[in-house]
């Protein structure tokens, strides 16, 4: 979504620095499950923020899709956070799969490198319909630094940034996309058909900073500061991991029954879709526990003040 007020070339561009603004905490919450807190981020007061949290119980790789965007009041600069995505491939192949086919929350793309992965999974879906879209540069960035900035120091892989230019509401803009591409994960499966191997790479920590053309260098310190304040809620992260583990266990059970990888994914997706109530109940319990813990912390802080 492209929020904010229309861009205008007639007004002078002002690029405030982080220290000159008042910041407020913005909570990214999951409206589907009682408002469970997903993450918090510090944004300048008066900026326009919006988010979406969507669950895909047919995806073991990263079953929750979190999207967030905040725009400056004049619409000339913004920060956007994109959902995780994944690619996979298999050996041996029991039946042919067309590259680009999406199944089980991932795209079939053997040996897809980070550059094409960013183009196909991130930039084209996000901006492909906008006029004059061009990728004008690409360069690697510190994977360790990007992972640390998102409080995910355990991640291993590579990272890249790509600068794009396009037209937004009649005005030329520039936008830098960043993403982390995990190292290849090899998953062996042994069943009645023998042993096969599935390979996964996840494209995560994907975000962008953008501005009216010519303004981006001035607002980079501010936009970078906003990104650096993002913190995912530990309770929510733990629950996401449990959901992923549950999906993986069920998937492996179907493989053991003799399904091939594609059939197992399809059967599992149908099964989970028919039994969402159990997962929803679990999330509601997590939300209630979080609320109780928050209330207890506030009460303790108040009595100790």
Would you kindly provide a written description of the structure presented here, covering whatever features stand out?
There is one protein chain. It is globular, with a radius of gyration of 21 Å. The strands form two sheets. Strands 3, 4, 5, 6, 7, 8, 9, 10, 11, 12 and 13 form an eleven-stranded mixed beta sheet that branches. A three-stranded antiparallel beta sheet has the order 1-2-14. The longest helix has 29 residues, at 276-304. Helix 4 (234-256) crosses helix 5 (261-273) and helix 4 (234-256) packs antiparallel against helix 6 (276-304). The chain has six helices and 14 strands. The protein is of the alpha+beta class.
> Helix and strand succession?
EEEEEEEEHEHEEEEHEHHH
| Largest sheet composition | 11 strands, mixed
User: What percentage of residues falls in helices of 4 or more residues?
Assistant: 25-40%
- Mean of all residue-level pLDDT scores: 84
Name its key features.
disordered N terminus, alpha+beta, globular, 305 residues
Quick structural summary:
The chain is α+β, with helices and mostly antiparallel strands and 305 residues long. It has helices at residues 114-127, 143-149, 216-228, 234-256, 261-273, 276-304; strands spanning 23-30, 36-44, 48-55, 64-71, 77-81, 85-91, 102-103, 106-108, 134-141, 157-168, 171-182, 185-191, 194-212, 231-232.
How do the helices and strands line up, and which of them pair or pack?
Layout: E1 23-30, E2 36-44, E3 48-55, E4 64-71, E5 77-81, E6 85-91, E7 102-103, E8 106-108, H1 114-127, E9 134-141, H2 143-149, E10 157-168, E11 171-182, E12 185-191, E13 194-212, H3 216-228, E14 231-232, H4 234-256, H5 261-273, H6 276-304
Parallel strand pairs: 6-8
Antiparallel strand pairs: 1-2, 2-14, 3-4, 4-5, 5-13, 6-13, 7-8, 9-10, 10-11, 11-13, 12-13
Helix pairs in contact: 4-5, 4-6
